[in-house]
Amino acid sequence: SSLTCPHCLKQSNTFDPFLCISLPIPLRQTRALNVTLVLQCERRRFVRVGLAVPLLGTVADLREMVAREGRIPPEQVILAEVSPRGFLRSLGDAEELGAAGEEAALYAFQPPPARHAGTTPLPSRLAGGAALIGWEGLRLRPAAARSSDCLHRGAGGRILLLLCNTAGDGPQLARFGPPLVLREERGVSWEQLQQSILAQLRALLRGEVRAQGAGALFRIRLAGGSAPCAYLSPQDPRPLCHPAVDRALQLSGAGGPPHVKLTVEWDASTKERLFGNIQEEVVQDAESVRLQQQAHRQQHSCTLDECFQLYTKEEQVPGTL
């Protein structure tokens, strides 16, 4: 046994004969983790991949692995936990992996490419039968924020938005459809923002959406933040310029582009009329999901030589005064 002082480097060697020895068994250093990729490629839009993540790794390590799987730059990856009720939180690079992805599904979003200013118009007619919707019947909750009262007029440029659709209320609240990501101008009006969101959902709509009067077809809530629940107001000329949006951008964490998570809340009857009984998205599993689960379910084996290597591995002994 060799002991070296880290300060004076004095070395002490002792020789202790023994007839038997208790060897430690090396433990598995990785765990299987499934991540759903939300990509901009039409042929490979939603896919769930299986990864062997290090037990003592950080989110930065996971971001690199996801980037390799999706063939995208690591700085473009946005990692977030999504439960059956909506967004939970975004993950920052400095965080330890720990139990990430165990309590809620883990999603990796690729932002859409930057393009010139302007919003995507809603198609005048969508596939399927017509669904005529009146907007007057939907009222905001009393606690809805009036963001026009605290409008941040200096904001500009484009902003990344993660969208999650929910329907119902209280215990019946449930997410439906796939979570989405879009890039939008900060200065858009409520009507323009509503049009952009509907354009993202056109593949899920059962028919044509036609406006009757003025108002809101759904509520939009800032999600995943530590601040009290904040709703964007349809009466605000520029709802994305609310100071709560600025706070959400600052809290989105280091690693990946800054973004804001929005929950689009639909009335249960409106959701049923427009989308039918669709639930959560159907995601295709890559072969790596099965392979990683199979590899980590198997009994972890090691050789006698690996046990001796772990036994003789150098370690730091805490000093005493």
UniProtKB/TrEMBL annotation:
GO MF term set: hydrolase activity
Lineage: Eukaryota, Metazoa, Chordata, Craniata, Vertebrata
Name used for this protein in its record: UBP43 hydrolase
Keywords from the named record: Hydrolase
Top-rank lineage group of the source organism: Eukaryota
InterPro entries xrefs: Papain-like_cys_pep_sf, Ub_carboxyl-term_hydrolase
Organism the protein comes from: Calonectris borealis
